[in-house]
Amino acid sequence: MDLTFFGLTREYRLALFKTIHEIVFHGQGGYDWATVYNMPIWLRRFTFETIREYYEKQKEETEKQQNMLKNKGQTNAKGPAINPKQPTYTTKAPRK
């Protein structure tokens, strides 16, 4: 039985700690746990959404680049126009 009169519900605490972890982990050293925990809720949500949008944009750009490389690799690439001479495999040995 969860008593929520003196604290947060279990689900809210779990969501809070996941949010704090995501900000600290994906903030690349810009935030520590205590700072994020003590942030006003509106600022923590703003920071989380900003980081989430940044990584979604990075993911889209990466996927675009990968698709371009895939499409580029599917074309029939032609090498240089080199026509090597066919070897004859016959040699002229000196006569004695």
User: Unreliable stretches, pLDDT < 50, 5 or more residues?
Assistant: none
Radius of gyration: 32 Å
Describe the largest sheet.
Answer: none
Percentage of residues assigned to helices: 55-70%
Total DSSP helices: 3
**Average pLDDT taken over every residue:** 85
Cα(first) to Cα(last) distance is 109 Å
The helix/strand order is HHH
Strand residues, percent:
under 5%
Indicate the structural class: mainly alpha
Give a count of the beta strands, DSSP E runs of length 2 or more: 0
From the spread of the alpha carbons, the general shape counts as rod-shaped
How would you describe the overall organization of this protein?
The chain has 96 residues and is mainly α. The protein has a domain of 62 residues. The chain has 3 helices and no strands. α1 packs across α3. The chain is rod-shaped and about 110 Å long.
Give a short synopsis of this structure.
By secondary structure, the protein is mostly helical. It has three helices and no strands.
